[in-house]
From TrEMBL:
It comes from the Bacteria. This is DUF541 domain-containing protein. It comes from Porcincola intestinalis. Transmembrane segments: none annotated. Residues 1-20 form the signal peptide. GO terms for biological process: DNA damage response. Keywords: Signal. InterPro entries: 26kDa_periplasmic_antigen (IPR052022), SIMPL/DUF541 (IPR007497).
Amino acid sequence: MKKSMWAAAAAVGLAGMVLAGSGLAAASESQPETADGKIRTVSASATGVVMEVPDMAQITFGIVTNGEKADAAQSENTEKVNQVIATLKGMGVEDKSIQTSGYSISPQYDYDNLDVNKQPKLTGYQVRTTLQVSDRKIADAGKILSESVKAGVNNVEGVVYTCSTYDEKYEEALQKAVKAARKKADVLAKAEGASAGKVVSISEGYQDLSARYQSSDIGAAYETADAVQNASSIPDLSAGTLQIQAEVSVTYELAY
């Protein structure tokens, strides 16, 4: 009786060893190792792109004044800047959305008529204040630009567009990039008779923050002070489409 029990136990143990051996063989096939014991891998990089229509605008314009004396030009400039800011606030633009992004006072010279020492003659001074209005709906940007010109703006540098949902759309682009990377890795692995298995590592590519904004050449329509003053109508602003893209690099285990 004892002999039979020992024989049965030995048979069960042997079967367990066979099953365990089969399991090890299966794992070895799904995660093949190189001669030095490292897991074989395949890597791929990909880009995901999402197209989105911008809904927000950032406007940059300036107030330029000239005078024979610096203090006179500065006084006139300050008065006009205050008028423009008051106009913006009257249209509902908050303080946090108005930024003085530039200020300068520079001497002006006449290079065509030289003085007795053959040096350009000083004719006066120019004061320039640059204002940046941000976080405005594109639907309101044209009116803001038009009313600001009436209030004293005489130099329009440009308008840039962005999306209020940029971060959300960027995440969507990341997801597309990851899917595209796996597809490329599968194509590469197939050449080896395998497929892309578990992810070993994944990294995000460089994110260009300037890509958040799309420039407009509307400033070209206001290249001179006369052009600005003659712009009595509200300009039509067409934002076009913003391309949002993300890049990833992924390494996978080779699965056979």
